[in-house]
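Lab meeting, action items carried over

1. Structure of the two-component assembly. Owner: GW. Status: complete.
Input record:
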Amino acid sequence: DQQVKQNSPSLSVQEGRISILNCDYTNSMFDYFLWYKKYPAEGPTFLISISSIKDKNEDGRFTVFLNKSAKHLSLHIVPSQPGDSAVYFCAARVRMDSNYQLIWGAGTKLIIKP
Amino acid sequence: DSGVTQTPKHLITATGQRVTLRCSPRSGDLSVYWYQQSLDQGLQFLIQYYNGEERAKGNILERFSAQQFPDLHSELNLSSLELGDSALYFCASSVALSGVVGDTQYFGPGTRLTVL
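Predicted assembly:
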């Protein structure tokens, strides 16, 4: 049962344009959502997060939008730069017993074309 | 450089064998997490240790086990290896338990395990 889904395995965007990466979830108990970025041969690195009580969080070129009623979040990158080419993972936090766990999507490979 | 180190970088072994993957967390981080990433799959959470104690278990097979030592480094032991165990294994560390909002998980570069 995939609780966090990234339905687009890859996305190609022209440099300078907006990149929009999508993530859907099924568990209404998730309380935080995170985006991580991964370059080849490296581990994922944290990019941006959003609490479930907010609908938008912005950090420079990166904005995450959360639509709780649709159980959908998206990451907007504006403007897209060549260095943004990477795999982007969406993750959601859920409390389990006395601890928290992150549930991860399968990732979307973003390719920025010059 | 995240400050999390993993050894070895690559490991090739045969079915039925046993291997040990090692992780050193960032200085000061008490939590260590292990993840498995198979081809075209997301990160599957395996297990978490906090200050030497197991705190959470995910989709970890009984053939797999882990521990965190007093110096906070961690080892993931994989035994009776099968072809399907071939994957990237990531270790991550964080200061505390929550994994978000000021307690970001920092990932190591991963160990690529190939089982032939």
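2. GW to write a short summary for the group page. Key points so far: Chain A has no helices and eleven strands. Chain A touches chain B through 28 residues (CB under 8 Å).
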